[in-house]
């Protein structure tokens, strides 16, 4: 099944009956369509424009919408890590743009991963310890580098969150992660994108 968006279920591991564990779905992240468009040379860093292999590489703007699912009443996120990874080792992140749609909240800090990797990463945290990261949608933008001859790319979308949950009125920090990431395919020639399995 393919789709332009897909929900990634996140689970908390809880110990039960001695050493056994059970996984409970506590949160979710909906990833939207990965949109890709050409980047003008003037918008690229100067060192990239002067690279000897510039004519053999393509540079595309990447735009990804992500929505943190609303938690149960009284619960709130304090940390969210989002990851977009390509299977192809010759596809790299080049640079990241500030979040603008909507503008990032004043009390939330966005930390992107280091450029030059075959993956893109964004981390949302509160600017003060224990501050909430609101649920809802955000858009992240970056620049991707790939071979000029690249056609179809594949990869995964992944997320991990930390949130506060009250048990018997006592706040407890929980960590939730997926059982497996979402897989996707991106056709650079046709401009099409799809998740290979949608929930």
Helix and strand arrangement:
Layout lengths: L5 E11 L3 E19 L7 H4 L7 E12 L7 E11 L5 E6 L10 E5 L6 E8 L9 E12 L4 E16 L2 E7 L5 E6 L4 E4 L4
Antiparallel strand pairs: 1-2, 2-3, 3-8, 4-7, 4-9, 5-8, 6-7, 9-10, 9-11, 11-12
Structure description:
By secondary structure, this protein is mainly beta. The protein has one domain (6-195): Sandwich (Immunoglobulin-like), CATH 2.60.40. 2% of the residues lie in helices and 59% in strands. It has one helix and twelve strands. The protein has one helix spanning 46-49; strands at 6-16, 20-38, 57-68, 76-86, 92-97, 108-112, 119-126, 136-147, 152-167, 170-176, 182-187, 192-195. Strands 4, 6, 7, 9, 10, 11 and 12 form a seven-stranded antiparallel β-sheet that branches. β11 and β12 (192-195) form a beta hairpin. It is elongated and about 60 Å long.
